[in-house]
Design a protein that fits this description.
Layout: H1 27-44, E1 48-50, H2 56-64, E2 69-73, E3 84-86, H3 97-105, H4 128-141, E4 148-153, H5 165-177, E5 182-187, H6 193-205, E6 213-216, H7 221-229, E7 233-237, H8 240-245, E8 252-255, H9 261-264, E9 274-277, H10 298-301, H11 305-319
Parallel strand pairs: 1-2, 2-3, 4-5, 4-7, 5-6, 7-8, 8-9
Length: 330
């Protein structure tokens, strides 16, 4: 079960028998929708419900399912809704988020070896219709069949993960200046379109050919995955789109601020090209992303554009010998 904005991440996955999309509504409509979902789940007579989310809605639906076994994290005020409660330490611990969620499955599969990026990389099946739409858009953007597409995701859900606009503009200018056939696509969610537009404006002001940089902020997750699969490199911060990019074979450059790659790094084959960029050790890093103790977001803002450009050039160089298969996960 998944909400609409994330459904594309799991739809079509051959390991799943069914995907139930839970509409995201407000007010009284939300309660009516959830009542119908609860009835649907209970009628299906599931044996087990595993709550990977842990939020109020998911825990209530797990309870309402009537499953004989309900597994979830220890959450204040909601643990009673589960039959199996998995303790999760508060605060930071140096364990990848995939392994954190694996702990929820262990009560069902005791003794099964834990997953690794090599044996069980993240997966997202490429949507055929989305890939056709992306191919058409790329053809309209450039008739140059030798164009090198670079996707730079410039958005993030909160300020703690947003690298400065000036930094991204400098990266666009630096990458563009090194080859005339490079085409850079700036992506983000529709709400942050003005941010992407400003980065493009700054890049053009810095001398970038307007035809070399495009803003695409209207893509859904399936289209974003198809776009990244066709790119020569993906550049972006630690956000959801970076994990979508991790399901492709495309070289990646991921910028980390208050978070670390130990916990949130791309969970993909070590044979694929992945460059991690961060500021290194700071007394306040990692943090809980509620308040910046120094007040200047130094974990992000002290990362120089030159560092990101160098990492991107390395990824491009290393990726030249790598076989890219847009529609196949690794």
């Amino acid at each position: 079960m998944v909400e609409p904005h994330a459904a594309a991440a799991v739809q079509g996955n051959p390991h799943l028998d069914e995907v139930v999309v839970a509409p995201l509504e407000a007010g009284a409509a939300r309660w009516r929708t959830d009542a119908r979902l609860a009835f649907q789940l209970r009628r299906a007579r599931f044996d087990v419900a595993v709550d990977f989310h842990g939020g109020p809605r998911s825990s209530l639906l797990a309870l309402a399912s009537g499953a004989r076994r309900r597994i979830g994290y220890s959450v204040a005020g909601r643990s009673w809704m589960y039959t199996d409660v998995v303790q999760r330490p508060r605060g930071h611990r140096p364990q990848h988020s995939v392994l954190n969620q694996w702990e929820l499955v262990q009560p069902l599969l005791p003794g099964l070896p834990a997953p690794t990026p090599a044996s069980d990389p993240v997966e997202m099946v490429e949507d055929t219709a989305a890939s056709v739409r992306i191919d058409a858009r790329l053809a309209r953007l450039s008739a140059d069949t030798a164009a090198v597409w670079i996707v730079v995701h410039v958005g993030a859900g909160n300020e703690f993960r947003r690298w400065p606009e000036e930094g991204f503009a400098s990266v666009v200018a630096g990458l563009s200046s090194r080859s005339a056939n490079r085409r850079i696509i700036l992506t983000t969610g529709t709400a942050q379109t003005p941010r992407a537009d400003e980065i493009r404006r700054l890049a053009i002001k810095g001398g970038v050919d307007p035809a070399a940089v495009t803003v695409l902020c209207d893509l859904d997750l399936a289209e974003l995955r198809s776009l990244v699969a066709r790119a020569s490199v993906f550049v972006g911060g630690d956000s959801g789109p970076a994990h979508v990019a991790a399901t492709t074979t495309t070289p990646m450059v991921v910028i980390f601020g208050p978070t670390t790659d130990v916990v949130w790094g791309p969970w993909r084959s070590p044979g694929l090209v992945t460059e991690i960029v961060d500021v290194g050790s700071l007394p306040c890093r990692p943090c809980d992303q509620r308040r910046c103790e120094p007040g200047d977001f130094r974990c992000l803002r002290t990362i120089s554009p030159e560092t990101v450009i160098a990492a991107t050039e390395r990824a491009l160089d290393r990726g030249r010998g790598q076989v890219k298969v847009p529609g196949v996960t690794t």
